[in-house]
Amino acid sequence: MCLAVPMKVLHIEENTARVEIGGVRRTVRLDVIDHHPAVGDYVIVHAGFAIHLIEEKEATITLAYFKELLSCDTDASE
Predict the structure, then answer these.
(1) What are phi and psi of 32, to 5 degrees?
(2) Gyration radius of the chain over CA positions
(3) Which domains does the chain possess?
(4) The pTM is what?
(5) How many CA atoms lie within 13 A of 47 on its CB side?
(6) Alpha-carbon distance 48 to 3, whole Å?
(7) Between 8 and 35, residue with greater pLDDT
(8) What is the pLDDT of residues 60-72, one digit of tens each?
(9) What is the 3-state secondary structure (H, E, C) of the chain?
């Protein structure tokens, strides 16, 4: 299964961006994104590429869902 994650843009240099989520920073390519982001924008990141620009509100909601999913008890033996 593949998962794309919303990340905040911290820095842009040519066709790459430095992005962050929960203290984890990555450098991603901007080759395939629909609209070029600005610093402070949120982008959906998949496999090292920013693939879509999203609104901050949508990113915040999505990240809250991820946090909720990660906090669930995954013990299927009960």
Answers:
(1) -115, 5
(2) 14
(3) 5-70 (2.30.30.140)
(4) 0.84
(5) 6
(6) 12
(7) 8
(8) 998 898 888 888 8
(9) CCCCEEEEEEEEECCEEEEEECCEEEEEECCCCCCCCCCCCEEEEECCEEEEEECHHHHHHHHHHHHHHHCCCCCCCC
